[in-house]
Amino acid sequence: MTVSNDYRRRAPSGPLVSDLMDREVVCLGASASFKDLAVVLLRHQVPAVIVVDDVTGRPVGIVTEADLLVRQAFSGLPAGDMALRWDNNDSLAWVAVRHLGLQAGQIMSSPLISTSPDADELEAARVLAGHGLRVLPVVSEGAVVGLLSRRAILSRLDQPDVHLRARVEQCLDRLVEAGQIHVDVDQGVVSLTGSRGGRRRAYEIEREVAALEGVVEVLWRDEIGRAGVQVPPLGPTA
After folding, report:
1. Do 144 and 166 share a domain, yes or no?
2. Is the pTM of this model over 0.85?
3. In a shared domain, residues 151 and 194
4. DSSP secondary structure string, 91-131?
């Protein structure tokens, strides 16, 4: 299941998933053993293994380190103790049944939630956050071509403020007349002071600045320096 935000019809101004993803993808068949999964994760130092159908080779699920860890946590409990726990906690029963499996097809998360290489960073971040995922498979033409992790997105925030300010100013030079907007940057939060024009123009400026690597948030301030608020987002654009 490839997830995207259909309402984002404008061309993305920030990085694409293909710019951020890890291109090393390790796949195992659904019949692969628990030990096979653990060994592959350790040897290849990847955050997840893609599970494919043993016959068709089609990606059908994903197994992460967390999945294997949960199985280990349950595996030491006697069957009788597990039965009592299941009776008292239906959600625990579901987790235990899945994670006591011995094969990839039993342990995997399925259906596979994925994104595409040409999705933008914000779309992918929303999918990761909305589904509580640590890693997101990237699918193109039915094949998994990469993995996008939370760390890959968050690593873009590691930018010194002084460098970020220079890049924001360069960005603004393309959008407004020189000196029309003053820029301050503090811990990745960009404050803009000056004439911003109409609401739509302000939104366009904010969107371009927000897409720069390292920007945490964009705020507008009025001419006397009082803290402003973010420009309200516009509705869908055809």
Report:
1. no
2. no
3. no
4. HHHHHHHHHT-SBHHHHSB-SPPBB-TTSBHHHHHHHHHHT
